[in-house]
Specification:
This protein is α/β, with parallel strands linked by helices. The protein contains 25 helices and 26 strands.
Length: 831
């Protein structure tokens, strides 16, 4: 690793975001690949690694011979500043190659408020922002994702945009680029070839009136899906996720995804359960989830949940996305296991039956209350209810109904649970492209704030919580959801003014966007107005989604409060998407049932074992290279997942959320390498220590390797209580001038005062009591022996005091931990 990048990583928050090397990641040979693709997610690592679409594309491309796919994410503000100060380009995680060296840069557009991040990534990658500015040596920049259904605000920044299902089309585009490279085809001709693919919009070629259509997979049962996904260091959703259905035929009139991803295509229970079990066993994750737009409509849900609980060799909990209230059943709740001690999310969307009829939600108050009763009776302590504000035709009854429903649900909870909680979350309705409500208006920021303030006053008291979405963010989302290419200039100007991470409350600044709109001569308020019949939307030319006639009829049916049947089980709604000639029709999961009651997947010996049956093993592992930049918690999580994936007979803690019984040694600072890190893990069987080492091989991130293991006596002290001294080696090249004075002072055994400062609290210590030895090991290394004392000092703090340097400068010194001496055997290093 280049020293300047290493120094940057030790100076930023959460450096694990930029190191890669996770279990399950794919590091193909750069020179062996004919086409190199960098998949970019324009948000932080934690959010991007929770995005199933990114995982699917990564897998779909890397299983193809000749294609290489790597990842990059939006660097946080500190990392962006650091890269600019170093004049270093943004790089990928796997090979650390600059992004501009890839043939294709694929960007996921999942949320309109990531648009400024997209430009930041291109700029940091040294790729011209606009397609028209790029030359033959630049990558082909491609976008895809939900925002691609109205790509016009960002279209000038992309060479091509995939509309619809991306996995098969992206692979096809990769091979087209491969063939173009082989033949030396010019960039313009390559874009022409890409534009001929159904569902691929090339802004420089497709002019007004062009019909692009959509990329669609006929059968997701046979489409590529990662059974052995990446085990992320940290993610907002720490679970093994399996997509069990794509598309939805319920016809909720506000829901873009429900219309554009038609027809409904479902996976079988057998395949979904098999993929879930493989994912759990390979990653060691403690939760799994089945994902779909309306997962409660997947007839295989109950049997699949039961199958995973019975078949998985690991203790695992099920979590589900928000459900339609009428689709929740008692068997589904029972199959969720220990997760029932947490929360469960239901999505009524609207608070009155009239409004639910308007949006074609179709469920009743009784459906909702019956589901809430099942949730609390099933052991959940919290029910989360999701509503929208500002739906077309919303009145006083709808707003007041939110409080009434919340209090009724809380009353149900109090009958069934000791300390129930009802959490209400609201977001502002945003009219989306390709829906019956695309003609409707969006309420203003002021109206949103009025409604939110009212709910803040009424949704109060024990057991009630209220959460809301930022009104200014919803406003900006509405503008971009309905705007055209004229907004590209606004986005570019806002980016240059400093807009970043606009979906984050701590970063979002509406004043930047107000200034950009004003300087571009655009009134953003006009984008929120209702549209008349016959209005030409920016996305109409694409020919994606249902037909305009169908959408207009649905809008009229909404006004009449007329229901539209679910076309997967009722009559065809004539939306214009299905095409039986090519097999593009609704595909339901095969009929399935299970008469076997849900049982624990755990062997009886793992339930309620007494301490006398537990065997404690101490492992020594390395934490070097990329792994040195994992924090203590990330490393501990990696160990926990690795142990679970290893197949070892693990002991678990007691309580609602049993965890692997593991304890790590003292934390070392981020950036410090070590060959002598230790952790204790408890097993229910006595096994050969060498087997522990062998079973852990390949189960940890790059740079973390289990080197040896030993069975410890039952009464042996914990690691923290056993360490006497630690030895470190310091690269001589990183030492500041005058380092000899510290060596002489330590050798003389004179007091060496130092003030340790943490969280604005200062403690005076004498470094001579901590540093037993400081001497040159050879011409390039300075060795230091440190005693384990209280108050504890980090090695970086010791270096800071010894050499009279700043905390940042101390962290930049390359340090390796090479040995540990135990109190029971002071003279013997742990090898």
């Amino acid at each position: 690793m280049r020293s300047e990048i290493r120094n940057l990583l030790v100076s930023v928050a959460k450096p694990f975001r930029y190191v890669g090397g996770e279990v399950g990641s794919c590091a193909k040979g750069w020179e062996d690949a004919e086409v190199r693709i960098c998949l970019v997610f324009p948000d932080t690592y934690e959010i991007g690694m929770s995005h199933l679409g990114l995982a699917i594309l990564y897998h779909a491309m890397n299983v193809q011979e000749g294609l290489l796919a790597e990842r990059a994410f939006s660097p946080w503000l500190d990392m962006e500043r650091g890269l600019k100060e170093l004049d270093a380009p943004l790089f990928s995680l796997e090979s650390r190659r600059p992004i501009h060296e890839f043939d294709i840069v694929g960007v996921s557009l999942g949320y309109e408020l990531t648009y400024s991040n997209v430009l930041a990534i291109l700029d940091l990658a040294r790729i011209p922002l606009r397609s028209e500015q790029r030359s033959e040596g630049d990558p082909i920049v491609i976008a895809g994702g939900p925002c691609a259904f109205n790509p016009m605000p960002v279209a000038p920044f992309f060479d091509a945009i995939v509309i619809g299902d991306g996995e098969e089309r992206s692979v096809e585009m990769g091979f087209i680029v491969r063939d173009a490279k082989r033949k030396g085809v010019a960039r313009k001709d390559l874009l022409q070839r890409l534009s001929e693919l159904p569902g691929v919009y090339v802004p420089s070629i497709h002019r007004e009136g062009a019909r692009v259509g959509m990329a669609r997979i006929n059968d997701i049962e046979t489409s590529p899906f990662p059974a052995h996904p990446i085990a992320a260091f940290a993610a907002t959703q720490e679970r093994a996720a399996v997509e069990v259905a794509r598309g939805c035929t319920r016809g909720c009139r506000f829901c873009q995804a429900g219309y554009v991803y038609r027809p409904l295509r479902q996976r079988s229970a057998a395949l979904a359960a098999s993929v879930a079990c493989d994912s759990i066993s390979s990653t060691g994750k403690e939760e799994f989830s089945f994902l779909a737009l309306s997962v409660g409509d997947w007839l295989a849900l109950g049997p699949a949940l039961e199958s995973v609980q019975r078949s998985s060799t690991l203790r695992v909990n099920a979590t589900l996305p928000s459900l339609r209230v009428e689709s929740l059943t008692a068997p589904v709740i029972a199959a969720m296991g220990e997760a029932r001690s947490g929360s469960f999310t239901l999505a009524p969307e609207a608070a009155t039956e009239r409004m639910r009829a308007f949006i074609n939600k179709g469920n009743t108050d009784d459906d909702l209350f019956a589901s809430v009763e099942k949730v609390f009776a099933g052991g959940f302590s919290t029910v989360k209810l999701y509503f929208m504000l500002g739906l077309p035709g919303e009145g006083e009854a709808e707003v007041a109904g939110i409080e009434k429903i919340a209090r009724r649900c809380l009353a149900i909870g109090r009958r069934l649970h000791k300390r129930p909680t009802v959490t209400v979350s609201t977001s502002t309705f945003v009219p989306k492209a390709h829906t019956p409500f695309q003609w409707e208006g969006q309420i203003s920021i002021e109206e949103t704030l009025q409604l939110q303030n009212r709910l803040k006053r009424t949704l109060r008291g024990p057991g009630l919580e209220y959460r809301w979405h930022n009104a200014n963010m919803s406003f900006l989302e509405g503008v971009f959801s309905r705007g055209g290419s004229e907004l590209a200039g606004v986005i570019e100007l806002a980016y240059k003014k400093g807009a970043r991470f606009d979906g984050w409350d701590e970063c979002f600044d509406i004043s930047i966007w107000r200034e950009a709109f004003a300087e571009c001569g655009i009134d953003p308020e006009t984008y929120l107005a209702a549209r008349p019949d016959g209005f030409v939307f920016p996305w109409d030319c694409l020919g994606a989604g249902p037909s305009l006639d169908f959408l207009w009829r649905e809008r009229q049916r909404a006004k009449d409060l007329a229901p539209t049947e679910d076309c997967a089980v009722g009559k065809c709604s004539a939306c214009g998407i299905c095409d039986p000639k090519i097999g593009l029709v609704n595909r339901l999961a095969p009929a399935c049932h299970s008469d076997t009651p849900v049982t624990s997947q755990l062997p009886d010996r793992q339930e309620g074992q007494s301490p006398a049956t537990v065997f404690r093993y101490r492992i020594r592992f390395s934490k070097t290279g990329r792994a040195a930049f994992l924090g203590h918690l990330e490393a501990l999580d990696a160990l926990r997942r690795g142990f679970r994936a290893s197949g070892l007979p693990l002991a678990y803690s007691q309580g609602f959320h049993p965890r692997v019984r593991i304890a790590a040694g003292p934390a070392i600072p981020v950036g410090v390498e070590s060959a002598v890190e230790f952790a204790d893990v408890e097993l229910f069987e006595e096994i050969d220590p060498l087997a522990v080492v062998n079973l852990m091989q390949g189960r940890l991130p790059l740079g973390m390797v289990v080197l040896d293991a030993a069975l410890m006596p039952r009464d042996h002290p914990a690691i923290d209580d056993s360490v006497a001294r630690m030895r470190y080696e310091i690269d001589f090249a990183g030492l500041p001038a005058g380092w000899e004075r510290a060596v002489e002072a330590i050798a003389s055994h004179k007091p060496f005062p130092f003030s340790r400062v943490r969280k604005d609290k200062s403690i005076e210590v004498d470094l001579s009591e901590y540093v037993d030895e400081l001497a040159m090991s050879d011409r390039s290394v300075l060795g230091i022996h440190v005693s384990d004392r209280r108050p504890a000092l980090k090695i970086s703090e010791i270096l800071q005091g010894l050499f009279a340097i700043s905390e940042d400068d101390a962290r930049r010194i390359a340090v390796r931990k090479t040995a540990v001496e135990w109190k029971q055997q002071e003279s013997k290093d742990a090898q």
